[in-house]
Fold this protein.
Amino acid sequence: METITNYKLKDFFNQDLQLIEDYVNLLQHLKPISTNVRLTDLTLRQVETIKKTINDENELINIISIVQGITIEEVLELDIITFFPLIKDVQIQLESLVNKEINHLSPKHSDARFEMIDGSKRLEKFGVYNAVNSLANGDILKFNSILDLPYNEVFVKMYLDTTIADIQHEINKMKPINN
């Protein structure tokens, strides 16, 4: 490949498969371009959808539509040297977001009995619905309204709840003060 053509995305997909593969191998190394909307400013539902679909090449156009606040048609008009760096930024944001969740939303203490019966592993299959159920106090009628809250608000509330639970656990382990 001697020269690179900066195709519009819609034209890029009409190229020879080998050319597309060669370009993708190069384009994935471009420096990220910041998205118009940060993942943390999206709704919890949107963030969870992006988490589930980021590795599905058929969903990348939808993801860019969401984070750029533009239509699918407008995404297809983007140059490939814009599209691929936007995808890279979404991937970086997701990695940071997931690391933040792991570091801040995992309780410092666990119940040995809960872990003995593989409680965490068994609930893992419900994904975000564990958090949604907790925030809704088990009221299924509140699930959709929680999923439509800004991700950042949900994260802060979950972080607060995790911190309070850790503090309560430490208090419960303390011996009573005798006067």
About this structure: The two ends are 82 Å apart (CA to CA). The longest helix spans residues 80-105. Residues 42 and 116 are 37 Å apart (CA to CA). The chain has a mean pLDDT of 91.
